[in-house]
């Protein structure tokens, strides 16, 4: 087992909303868990070949007593959420990465507004707790399908404490749809805006904030906006060993690397987390991810091997 992984034990499962449960993990050997900042996630190794990223929902701390993740059961997903809901039991042990953060909170902003859809509330909970702790202004615009599908309502009520900072929007109720564009239009340019939710919400958010200072705009996607490159028909050359691997149709670069016992970090397999970022020595990538910026894609110096392919017949990777 990779020694960089942490062995954790499931201590508690809590029903949070319809199809959503939270899972609290403690250290399996009573050692201290690595600390984390708001917005961080861990990668859970649910079973061989099944690694999933989950945001941490408990209050950020330098020495946390536990890690809490929330999982929404997706019947038509890739299987990770179904496995977690159907197979995980209190007392089970798993391996996980130390917390990583691709969605950090800017604590210097005097005011922050959060636009959240469904399970996207997870990374935002420690953010608003932190902003409360340091005396910053914030508001939460929380959209979900219905009241019964809204997670962490009691916790949010306690955090809000009657201040009116938490606004709920339920798509199933007339006149309750969240209008991101109208809300953003009322905000001062110095206000930092955050979004975590499904693809459509992120797209609406980016359209509404395109005229704002990019330094004040923060978001995290659940999944990529493009299909993974699986057309195949090219070779991958490993620069360090010289090995040449054929990527056949129906396979991603990551599939081929793993099939040939090439060790490479990976997590989401959707091109959004950045875990599998790999350097390019030569060749032209077909970028399908939502992690690299347009400038980084144009520079063609790295590739997300989980979802991107090649426009050239050969792609030489820094592996």
UniProtKB/TrEMBL annotation:
CDD domains: fer2 (cd00207), PDR_like (cd06185). InterPro entries: 2Fe-2S_ferredoxin-like_sf, 2Fe-2S_ferredoxin-type, Benzoxazolinone_Detox_Enz, Beta-grasp_dom_sf, FAD-bd_FR_type, FNR_nucleotide-bd, OxRdtase_FAD/NAD-bd, Riboflavin_synthase-like_b-brl. It holds the Pfam family NAD_binding_1. It comes from the Bacteria. Residues 234-319 form the 2Fe-2S ferredoxin-type domain. Residues 3-106 form the FAD-binding FR-type domain. PANTHER family: PROTEIN YIIM. This is PDR/VanB family oxidoreductase. The lineage of its organism: Bacteria, Pseudomonadati, Pseudomonadota, Betaproteobacteria, Burkholderiales.
């Amino acid at each position: 087992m990779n020694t960089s992984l942490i062995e954790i034990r499931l201590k508690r499962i809590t029903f949070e909303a319809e199809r959503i449960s939270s899972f609290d993990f403690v250290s399996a050997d009573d050692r201290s868990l690595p600390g984390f900042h708001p917005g961080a996630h861990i990668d859970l190794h649910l079973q061989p070949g099944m690694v999933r990223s989950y945001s941490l929902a408990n209050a950020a701390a330098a020495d946390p007593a536990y890690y809490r993740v929330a999982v929404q059961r997706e019947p038509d997903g890739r299987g990770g959420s179904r496995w977690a809901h159907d197979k995980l039991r209190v007392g089970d042990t798993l391996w996980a990465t130390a917390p990583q953060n691709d969605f950090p909170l800017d604590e210097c902003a005097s005011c922050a507004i959060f636009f959240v859809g469904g399970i996207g509330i997870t990374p935002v909970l420690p953010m608003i707790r932190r902003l409360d702790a340091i005396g910053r202004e914030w508001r939460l615009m929380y959209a979900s399908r219905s009241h019964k599908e809204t997670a962490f309502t009691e916790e949010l009520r306690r955090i809000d404490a009657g201040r009116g900072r938490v606004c709920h929007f339920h798509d199933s109720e007339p006149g309750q749809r969240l209008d991101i564009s109208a809300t953003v239009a009322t905000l001062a340019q110095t206000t930092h805006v955050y979004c975590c939710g499904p693809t459509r919400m992120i797209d609406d958010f980016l359209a509404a904030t395109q005229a704002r200072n990019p330094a004040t705009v923060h978001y995290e996607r659940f999944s990529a906006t493009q299909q993974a490159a699986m057309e195949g028909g090219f070779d991958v050359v490993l620069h360090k060993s010289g090995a040449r691997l054929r990527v056949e149709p129906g396979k991603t670069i990551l599939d081929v690397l793993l099939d040939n016992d090439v060790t490479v970090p990976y997590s989401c397999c959707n091109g959004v987390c950045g875990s599998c970022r790999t350097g390019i020595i030569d060749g032209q990538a077909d970028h399908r991810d939502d992690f690299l910026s347009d400038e980084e894609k144009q520079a063609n110096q790295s590739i997300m091997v989980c979802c991107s392919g090649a426009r050239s017949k050969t792609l030489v990777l820094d592996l």
